[in-house]
Structures are given as structure tokens and as C-alpha cells.
Write a structure and sequence with these properties.
- By secondary structure, this protein is α+β, with helices and mostly antiparallel strands.
- It has two domains: 1-73, no CATH class; 75-106.
- It is built from three helices and five strands; from the N terminus they run ααβββββα.
- Strands 1, 2, 3, 4 and 5 form a five-stranded antiparallel β-sheet that branches.
- The longest helix has 30 residues, at 76-105.
- Mean pLDDT is 86; it is low at 1-11.
């Protein structure tokens, strides 16, 4: 097998092999009769010569007296970041529209 065959195999990976999203449970912590299990979601992106993994917490699973309760984790920082990103895109679009309008007038 020559180098072209190996490179051909690497580049022929399908989307399911390159991008994966999964929910992962962490190690359980036991406090008396309560068992706490953290859960996170991970996004894995692979490309030919590397990749990236991004984790974010999503919930805590609480097991007590034979019952389970899922407590969601709200990531306020991420919500704020997305809000600021959205505002910045909005301001860029407004500035672009104003610039186009001025060019048409003058």
C-alpha cells in the first residue's frame, strides 16, 4: 500500500466518524444515602491531522431512596457569550447596511 492509499483512506472518513456528539456520565459521588452523577455533553471533531473535543456540563443525576432525579445545569456564561456574539453580528450587519446606504447616496 503506498502513501496515496493511506491518505485516501483518511480523507474518505464519513461525517459520523469525523463529528460525534455524546452525553457522558462522570464518576459518582456518594454522600450518605444520596448518589450524585455528573453528566456532560461532548462534541468531538476529527480531521486528517488532529481534532478537537469540547465538553460542557448538562446535568446532575441524583439517586436517592430508589428514585432518580435529573437536575439540569444552566450555563449562564455560555448564554451570555452567545448573546454577545449575536449582538456583535447584529452591529456588524447594521454598520454594513449603513455603509451601503451612504455609498449609494454619495
Amino acid at each position: 500500500m503506498d502513501a496515496r492509499d493511506v491518505c485516501g483512506e483518511v480523507t474518505m472518513l464519513n461525517l459520523k466518524d469525523r463529528v460525534q456528539i455524546q452525553t457522558v456520565s462522570g464518576d459518582a459521588a456518594v454522600l450518605g444515602d444520596v448518589k450524585l452523577i455528573p453528566q456532560s455533553r461532548s462534541l468531538t471533531v476529527r480531521w486528517t491531522y488532529g481534532g478537537m473535543v469540547w465538553h460542557c456540563p448538562v446535568a446532575v443525576l441524583v439517586q436517592r431512596d430508589g428514585q432518580e432525579e435529573t437536575i439540569p445545569i444552566v450555563d449562564v456564561t455560555r448564554i451570555a457569550q452567545l448573546g454577545f456574539w449575536g449582538l456583535s453580528v447584529l452591529f456588524v450587519l447594521i454598520a454594513w447596511a449603513v455603509s451601503l446606504r451612504q455609498k449609494r447616496r454619495g
